[in-house]
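User: I need a structural model of Disease resistance protein RGA2-like from Coffea arabica for a docking pre-check later this week. Nothing fancy, just the predicted C-alpha cells so I can convert them on my end. Input:
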Amino acid sequence: MESAFQSGIASASLQVVLEKIANFAVRETSLILGVDDELRRLQRTLQRIRAILDNVENNHLSLINDSSNEAWKMWLVDLEKLSYCADDLLDEISLDISRVHADNSDDANNSNLVRSNLLSSFKLSVPHEICKIRKELEHISTEMDSLFLSKLSAVGSYKMHTPLNNNFCATSSLVDEEFVVGREKDKEDIIQMLLMTESNRGNVSVIPLVGMGGIGKTTLAQVVYNDDRILKNFEYRIWISVSINFDLIRISKSVVESLTGKKCKLSDLDPIQSKLQNLLFGRKFLLVLDDYWTEKYGDWDALCSPLRVGRQGSKVIVTTRSTIVSSILGTIPAYSVQSLNDEVCWELVKQRAFSSKDEREKMNLEEIGRKIATKCKGLPLAAKSLGGILRFRSDEEGWNAVLNSKMWELPQDQSEIFSALILSYHFLPTRLRKCFAYCSIFPPNHEFEMEELVLLWVGEGFIQPRGEMRLEDIGNDFFSELIWRSFFQFSHVNLHNQSIYKMHELIHCMAQLISANTCFRLEEDIQHWPPAFNNARHLSLSHESVQSVGPKAFTWFRQLRTLIMSTNDTSVSQVPYELFLKLQFLRVLNLSHMGIDELPSSIDRLKHLRYLNLSENHIQKLPEPTSNLLALQTLKLKSCFEFFELPTNMKNLTNLRHLDLDVKHQLNYMPSGFGNLVNLQTLSAFIVGRARGCGIIELKNMRFLRGSLCITNLENVLRPMEAKEANLFKKPYLKKLQLEWNCLGDKIDEQEVLAGLQPHENLKELSISGYNGVMFPSWISNPVYKLTNIHLHSCLSCSILPSLGQLPLLKFLCIEDMAGLVHVDHHFCGFGSIKGFPSLESLIFQDMPNMTTWRGLNGDDLPCLRELTMSNCSRLTSLPSLHNLNFLHNLNIGSCPRLQALPEEGLPESLQLLIIVDSAIIKERCRADVGEDWHKINRIPKIEIDYVEIPIVVHGV
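Assistant: Understood. Predicted C-alpha cells for Disease resistance protein RGA2-like:
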C-alpha cells in the first residue's frame, strides 16, 4: 500500500517536470547549443517512466509483501530526487534566459545579440548536466521495466492482486443495526426525504450521500434501506455496489438480477436495459448505488435512462466521496454525512476491543481507550479499525502503544482505514497530488485559507500555465477540487470574511505518509536531526527558540525548496548571513512573526525564490540586493509597522504578482520606476510621490490589479491629467478602492484629480478620505456602477452630497466628518428611473458638526433600509419622516443634543431596537409613559437610553 502511495507522488513529480519542459519556448532553448536536443530526450525518458508508474499504480502487481517491494521503494525515492534535480536545472535555465532578456530589453529584436549573451551567460556544462540526469533516469527505467515485464510474463495479466478491483470494495445491503450508533438523526432525516413525494422533480428523485472515505455513508444507507417504513412504501428495493470500475453492463445486469432473483444471461446493453425498463415500468422503487466514483455525465445518463419509467415517488440513493458526482446526478441538494463525536467513537471502539475481555480488564483499559477514540476524529471506520487492533492487545502497555502511535505506524494489514483512504488518493488527478501532499508540512488541525495556500502552490511550481488562465485561478480550481473530493472540509469564516478549511486528521496522516521522503514538519530538538533529511525539500520548523537554529543545522537541508519557520520567541532580531548561502534552492520562505529587524544582503543568493513572507516583524527596510530576486512572485510585508523603505531598484522585480503591505504612512513614496511591475495583481497600497518616476502615472500599465487598492498621498498629484493617465477605469478586476488625501490642497485641482480617478464600473467598494473639493464628480453616482459599499470621510469642503440614491446595488453607506455639509435634500436620493437607494440596508451619518436638516425623503425611498445611525450631529434639529421604512430594524441616535423630536408621523412598526445616547431633548420626550414621544416608541421590543435598557414591561399594552 505504501508503494502505491509513493508511486503516485513520484508520478506527480515527473508530471511537473514534463509540464515545464512542454512550456519551454523552443526558440529560446534552441539558441543554446545542445540544450534543446537534451531536453527532448529527457522528455521522452520521463514519459516512459510515467507510463510504467501509472501501470504499477493501477495494477499494483502484487508488490505488497513481496521482496521486490523494497527495490520499488528505492527507485521511487531516487525518481523523486532526480525529478527535483531536473526541475532545479530547468528553473536555472529559465531564470538565466529571463535575466538575459531583462538585460537586453532595449535590443530584444536583435536575435544575434540575445544569442551571444545567452551563450556567454550559460555554463558549458548545462547540456551535460541534463544528459547526466537523463541517463540516471534511463538506468532506473530499464531496471523498473525489467521487473515489470518479468512479473507481467509470470502472471500473464495486468490485474493480479489489484487492491482497486470491484471485489475489494463490494458491499451488500445487510447490516446488524445493534452495532450502528450515533446515526439516529441522520437515519430519520434521510427516511423523511425518501417518503416525501416531489411532484415537480419527475418520477425519480436522486439523493446523494456525500462524505470522506470511512465516514459511514454505506452504513447509513444500509440502516435506511432496511427500515420497516421503507419496506412498506417501496415495491422494489435494489442494492448495487458500484465501486471504482464503472461497468454499465454489469450494473444494469445486477439490477435486473436483483429484481428477478435469477441470473441474467443477456450480454448486450440494449436488451438488458430494455428488460430493466419493463421490470420497473409503473413501479415505485428504491435503488441504492453504493460507492459511486465516475464523474462522467455520459455514464450517469446511460445508467439512469431506464430508471425514469418508475412510478412517482421512486428514489435513488447514491453514496459518494465526491461533490462533483453529487452535482452531476443529484436532483436535490446532497446530504452531507458528518463526523461522529468522541463518545460515539468510543462506543464503536468498545464493540470490537472488548468483545473477549472480562470486566476487570475493561475497567483498567477504559481511560486509555477513551483517549484512543479521540484519534479517530469522528471517523467510524477508524474507530472500528482501532478496536480490531486493540482486541488482540490485552494490557495497558499494548493499549498505550496504540495511543502513542501515529495512525500510519499501526499495522496496515490490521487497519481498514488506509484501504479506504487509498481509493480517494487513487482517484485524485495527478495534477492535484503534489498540492495535496504538500499540506503535510502544516500541523494537524491547521486552518487553511485558499488564497494563501494557492500562492504557496504557485511559488513551488506545482501549478503550470493553462491557456490564458491565471495561475492563481487554476490553483483556486485545484483547491475547490480537493474540497469536492472531501480532502478539505469547511470550518468557518474568519474576521476578514475569508472561508477557512480544515483537513481531517486521518486525511492529514495520509498526506504525511505520501510525502514522507520530502516533506517534514519538525518540533523536536534541532541538534538531533537524522541524515535522512538530506532528501528533504519542504520543511516547516516550529521551535521554542529559533536562536538555536544555527547555519550548521541546515547542512542537512541544502536542497530545501520550502522553509516555514514559527516560534514563540519573537526576539530573533537578525537572520544569519550564512543561512541564505546554504539554502540556495528555496522557492518559499516564510519568516513571519519572528521579531526580525534586518535581513542580510545575502538574500540575493536565493535566485529561485518565488514567495517571501516577512509579515509581523520589526523590519524597517529590505536590503538593496532584494531587487535581484528576479523570480519573486509574492512579497508579504503585512503588519510591519516600522517599515519605511522599499529597494531602490524594485522595478527589476518584473515577475512580482503580489505585494502585500500596510498603509500606516510609514512609506513616503514608491521607488522610482515602480510602473515596470506590470504583472502585479495584488497591490494593497500605492503611495504617490512627487519625484520623477514616483507619481500616480506609474499605475498606468498595471491592468491586472485586483482585490483591494489604497492610493494615498494624493495631494502629491502634480497635474490633474496624471490621475486620468493612471487608467483606473481600465482595471476591471479591482473590487475595493480607497482614495486618500492627507493634507489640504487646491479645491479645483482636487476636483479634477478625483474626476480623473474614475474606476471601472465593476468596482464594489469605494472609500474617499481627506478630499478637499466642494463637490463630487458625476461618476460616483452613475447607475452603471455595481458599488455595494461607500464610505465618504473627512471631505471637509464638500457642501453637496452626490446623488448616491441612483446606485442600484448600494447596500452600505457611511458619511463621516464632513464639516461643509449643512443640508441634505432630495438631491441625495437622486433622479431618473433609478433613485431612492433601492438596495440600501445600512446608512450612517457620523461626526457631522454643521448638518442641521435632512429633508426630501419620499414614501418609496429607502425601501430596504434596516439600520439608520445619526451620531455626533451636534446641530441636527430634525429627522425626516421614517414611518414608511417598512424594513427598518435598528435606529441609533447618539450625541444629537439639538434634535427636537422624533418624526411627527411616528416610527415604523418594523423597528426592533431604538438606541438614544447623549441627546437630552429626545431623552426627555421619550420618558416612559409621560414623555411626549413615548406613544411613538412604546411598541418597540428593545429601547436603550443612555446605555440603560427600558424594561419591556413598561412598554404598555
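Before docking, keep this in mind: Residues 342-418 form one domain.
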